[in-house]
Design a protein that fits this description.
The complex is a heterodimer of chains A (312) and B (528). Chain A has 312 residues and is mainly α. Chain A is 71% helix and 0% strand. The model of chain A has no long low-confidence stretch (mean pLDDT 85). Chain B has 17 helices and 19 strands. Classes of the chains: A mainly alpha (312), B alpha+beta (528).
């Protein structure tokens, strides 16, 4: 009886990741750790706002208008139940930050995911297939680029609102996400197309083609991982832009309702108070947006370096 | 000899003017929507366009009726008024102003696309007697015709025909024409440059038929939407006059010492309207019926709104809570009826339960965010108030460029509007806001189509009544009916707030009109 040696289990994806270069580089980069920690903390606050926030600023019935414009707790006239003060509707600034970040991150994140999905698939197709398909997709890109992105967003949001006048919040979110995502996919498509055209002629792709691997599989399994680097970097930066676009749309009246303000709407409101001395309405939401945007950008920077084979 | 020296001085002054033109820089929260004086019945637009186009009858600094393009008028019969037109008046392009222009302007203002239809609705016919006399015949006796004619301006027939602008610009349908961007009036200022939403420049009309009190040669009007930016522009000397001053910044602007903040009561009443016509609201969770048709629901909404706190907090005290659709200063205001239903959440909840909505309902609300003082903040406070009686308000706050076309199409269930009776008479509010809408222009701004035949009847009678006492009685009765029906929810009269440098003198009217011919500027001590 010969013992059949037990097959060595292939290391799980997670284990491979922890053993790999990227994790190693991450552990040795204090900036990346810091940025990730801050971003995660913001995301955590946003996700669990309902549990950790002291008030629910979106529940209109609990707002006390008579408690409006209170300064932060440590200042003269501040109240301990409103740690960072209140806005002109009597909303607790701290809670509104958490809830607002949730909306901003949701819209920012989701629209970037949609942009990436559309942009990467079209870019991959365009770069790999080439010819007429490529020409067509790239002309569509040109057309999209010739319109200011806020105009496209306004158009989509306007049409969306006209089609569903009784839209509930969730549907309005959907329209808003689409409105921000659609003008954004072009840059992904262009980036991915460029890298794909380079990769397409490399030996490993040609080898795969000779062996008879179907084009779909080549695109997804072989080319895609090699062109994803710049996309990740673009995406992290794009989240911050998307949050700003959402704030603009909300100001123009096609975004989120002012009764459930996002971070952007909140800054916009606070901006009006700049001269009146109510600094807490600008500084806190502004810092929150800064933290989110900065940490994501720093993380994106590190990711770019870590994924760049020439820097390794 | 005397003539010579006057001429010399005049030419000297002109020369000085040319080398050192006095420019007045004005900023407002929003832009003038169009240069066409018949296109939108909105105070800012009327106020600005009045500097270029003039009506037959105008208003003096004390709001009294004064002759402008008509020198005098009299009634030749109860329904016929004879207007003597001013002679020697020329439009900016040099064409003389005659009776034909008056006939044309009346016809233009009555066009379906015009926003002035409400003001010409009482007019049956306008006849030319000779080049400088017209007869205006009203359908029924109409004692306040001169007050009404202060609102709409005279345009040149020849110019409109040459420029294909015979029909007014229709904002609702988005129809524009030359009159949106060019202007040719008889007023003290001519349009020099028009860049929508950027800047509009008007210059002094040296051929004006009257002496211009002002020394201003040029007015640059810029919309600056952001409150803080507008204040910063004033404090840094980039603009000379701004309106409105954000309430939160009044103290700061005053405190700087170089600026005057002029706060006066405005005739404008801010109110909420509800769709009472459709059988099902456009945006609501209630299907198959319209909750606003039930008076109990309207009353519950009224009593759930804590206007005193809105005044104290959102308006920082600069508002007068009201129970009526017109404010003090308007003929027909009833001081003894100006008592709001008490703010009472429990009573409101009870009313909602009686009406069959113990758990409330959802409704969409439309609100501007750059038209009235703290408009969007007021709507948010109202939404918070209504949440306490279970009503979930889905608030859309948007800029007035999109807001007004939308609500004027009646594309709303619950909306906010502010109204200044342009004639300073209660009939204006009754006719435009409260009477049942008809295709003749009545109820043009009754956007929720509140309707009570008794009030319509009284409105028609008030229009023709010449006995002041009887008229006052009927106005009171009509207001009572509207108040008992809770046809609208009046909130408050806002306070006007203008700020300007100490080198500027001007006149503020309670209608919030800014006449540049009453603005004088002294050279700044630190002239650049």
């Amino acid at each position: 009886m010969s013992a059949v040696p037990a097959p060595v289990a292939a290391p799980s994806a997670l284990a491979r990741f922890f053993a790999g270069d990227i994790w190693h580089s991450f552990r040795n980069s204090p900036m990346a750790i810091g940025a990730a920690a801050v971003a995660l903390a913001c995301i955590f606050c946003a996700l669990f706002a309902g549990v950790i926030a002291p008030h629910n600023p979106f529940d209109l019935a609990t707002l006390e208008l008579s408690d409006s414009m209170l300064p932060p707790a440590w200042m003269q006239g501040g109240q301990s139940k409103y740690l960072l003060g209140t806005d002109e509707q009597g909303r607790d600034v701290l809670s509104a930050l958490m809830y607002g970040a949730r909306i901003s991150l949701l819209i920012g994140g989701a629209s970037v995911v949609v942009s990436v999905l559309v942009g990467v698939s079209l870019g991959l197709l365009s770069g790999y297939v080439g010819g007429r398909v490529d020409a067509f997709i790239m002309r569509v890109c040109d057309v999209m680029l010739s319109f200011p992105s806020i105009l496209i967003a306004l158009l989509i949001a306007g049409v969306g609102r006209a089609m569903f006048p009784n839209a509930h919040d969730s549907l309005a979110f959907g329209v808003l996400i689409l409105a921000i995502a659609l003008p954004g996919w072009v840059q992904y498509a262009r980036t991915v197309r460029g890298s794909t055209m380079v990769e397409r002629n490399k030996e490993y792709v040609q080898a795969a083609r000779v062996v008879g691997v179907p084009p779909m599989r080549i695109m997804l399994r072989h080319v895609l991982p090699n062109v994803l680097g710049p996309v990740l970097v673009l995406a992290t930066i794009h989240v911050a832009t998307a949050i700003q676009t959402e704030a603009t749309l909300s100001f123009l009246g096609v975004g989120v309702s002012p009764t459930s303000p996002s971070l952007g709407t909140f800054i916009n409101e606070g901006n009006k108070q700049l001269f009146s001395g109510a600094w807490w309405l600008v500084i806190f939401p502004g810092s929150m947006l800064l933290l989110i945007a900065l940490s994501m950008n720093l993380f994106g920077d590190w990711l770019r370096d870590a994924l760049n084979p020439r820097l390794r | 000899m005397k003539f010579k020296s006057t001429a010399l001085i005049a030419s000297l002054l002109l020369a000085c003017g040319a080398s050192n033109a006095v420019t007045l820089r004005v900023a407002n929260q929003g832009d003038v929507q169009s240069m066409d004086p018949h296109s939108l019945n909105e105070s800012l637009q009327l106020s600005f366009d009045t500097n270029i186009y003039e009506p037959l009858v105008g208003r003096g600094k004390d709001m009294s009726v004064i002759p402008v393009l008509a020198t005098k008028w009299s009634q030749t019969s109860p329904t016929v008024w004879r207007f003597e037109l001013r002679k020697g008046v020329k439009f900016h392009d040099g064409t003389p102003f005659t009776a034909d222009d008056v006939l044309f302007s009346f016809k233009r203002a009555a066009d379906p696309g015009s926003d002035m239809r409400g003001y010409v609705a009482p007019v049956k016919d306008v006849r030319k007697v000779n080049d400088h006399t017209v007869d205006v015949e009203t359908i029924t006796p109409f004692p306040i015709l001169p007050d009404t004619l202060t609102v709409f301006a005279m345009m040149s027939k020849k110019w409109c025909e040459e420029n294909k602008a015979e029909k007014p610009v229709d904002r609702r349908k988005g129809i524009e024409n030359t009159a949106s961007f060019k202007a040719n009036g008889t007023g003290p200022f001519r349009l020099k440059e028009r860049q929508p939403s950027v800047r509009t420049v008007i210059v002094r009309n040296f051929n004006y038929w009257d002496k211009i009190e002002s020394n201003v040669d040029e007015v640059v009007f810029t919309p600056i939407g952001n409150d803080a930016t507008r204040v910063a522009a004033l404090l840094s000397g980039e603009i000379d006059v701004m309106e409105p001053v954000p309430l939160q910044d009044v103290e700061r602007v005053k405190g700087s010492g170089n600026y005057t903040v002029l706060q006066g009561p405005e005739l404008r009443t801010i109110f909420l309207g509800m769709d009472q016509k459709r059988d099902e609201l456009l945006s609501s969770s209630v299907k198959g019926k319209n909750p606003f048709k039930d008076k109990r629901v309207r009353q519950a909404f009224f009593q759930a709104i804590d206007e005193e706190t809105i005044k104290a907090r959102v308006m920082r005290g600069a508002a007068t809570p009201t129970a009526e659709m017109v404010g003090p200063g308007v003929r027909g205001f009833q001081p003894d009826m100006n008592k709001r239903l008490p703010y009472d959440v429990e009573a409101a909840k009870k009313l909602m339960a009686e009406a069959g909505y113990p758990n409330g309902f959802e409704v969409g609300m439309n609100c501007p965010n750059d038209r009235y003082v703290n408009d969007a903040a007021i709507c948010q406070a109202v939404a918070a108030n209504l949440a306490r009686i279970g009503v979930k308000v889905n608030l859309t706050a948007e800029t007035k460029n999109t807001y007004f076309p939308k609500i004027l199409r009646r594309d709303t269930s619950f909306y906010m509007l502010g109204w200044t009776p342009s004639t300073a008479d209660a009939h204006d509010a009754l006719h435009n806001l409260m009477a049942t809408p008809t295709d003749k222009g009545q109820g043009q701004y009754n956007l929720g189509s509140y309707s009570n035949p008794k009030l319509d009847d009284l409105t028609a009678k008030i229009q023709v009544e010449t006995d002041a006492n009887k008229r006052a009685e009927m106005i009171k009765e009509a207001f009572k009916i509207h108040q008992d029906d809770i046809g609208h929810i009046p909130l408050h009269q806002q306070a006007l707030a203008w700020a300007y440098g100490k080198n500027v003198t001007l006149t503020q009217l309670p209608t919030n009109y800014m006449y540049f011919r009453w603005v004088t500027m002294k050279a700044k001590p630190d002239a650049r």
